[in-house]
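Researcher: Here's a chain I'd like modeled. Treat it as a single chain, no partners, no ligands.
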Amino acid sequence: MPAIGHRRGHWTVPDDGLVSRTGRSRGSGPYDAAVPARLADAEIALPSDLAADLADAEAALVRLDAYAASALGPEHTAIGPMSSILLRTESSSSSQIEDLTVGARQLALAELDETTSANARLVLANVRTMEAALDLAEHLDAPTILRMHRVLLGDRDPAAGSWRTQLVWVGRSSVSPRGAAHVAPEADDVPAAIEDLVAFMARDDLPVLLHAALAHAQFETIHPFTDGNGRTGRALVHAITRGKGLSVRTTAPISAGLLTDVDTYTGALTSFRDGDARPIAETFAQAARYASVTGIRLVDDLARVLEESRALLGSLRPQSQAWALLPHLVAQPIVHAAHVKRVLSTSDMTAQRALARLTEAGVLVETTGRRRSRVWQHPGILAVLDAYAETVRRGHPG
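Model: Modeled as a single isolated chain. Structure tokens:
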């Protein structure tokens, strides 16, 4: 792999009254912005041991994909509840890498627009970004990346869906790029770098997981936005694995694997910029294996809770809408009547009756105590999701 080049620039810290004279002096001076190596036509050597590692990791993702799609039984499609919760789990882990942490309950409430948590709304935006990435997986070009970013930041942010027009860097200083761990390319170099990345993503001569890892590392090197680069770049990974046929039914929690050792992940990005792509390939292979092992365990735990809930319904007649609602609680463990009415395509009265049956059986718990605008939750599913998040924070699968 070729290493990045550099373009010399000169930075002047403005005298805005917020920075001392000494700080302005230290922060002003020359800096070196990255010039990303061209990947569209780059020759990429793959040692046999790394090829075997990537093949094993890809096989693990295929196992998770098939297992999750079938976990709720043959009557459920691949875009059903288990796929939805895996996508939300991946989005939460990707957000947590950016220090955006939210519990399963708050995120589920955000889906219903019932939360006051700012973090929950930000993580929900990342869920929507992942969804957009998967929807656009077969058309990976510059407009697709811009659309993903627009979904992430929302229409109220004037920078949403636009390449940055200023210099950005990764480092401790907020006022100067001098001494930063990584100074991204100059703003006027971004469009050409993205064009090369798009051409690279169109290649078909690389293992899919390696392709996704290298594209992600190149995207993070370009850092084409002023905000949201990490989350957009990790959503891009899933667009590639979906578009190239590796994970076609579910979203593996690869970011959960990256989250277990963020220092190794960021170090691998640095090595990539220095011309050594092996660490980022190995990091993604390990993250994929982690995603498969823990993802299958998560699927099993959710399926177990679902079976326990079915047992609680006992002799309730099979035609009851309570049975139809049950699997949807995996994807959305907190519901209100309007949500139930929508997912079951039924009347308000029938939705209320289904909620009442599930509450009487002990499957759901009403959490507001109000007569109107009531919300119900499935405690068992929320507990499983929070336990998975804690496992990720501990950094090992069990």
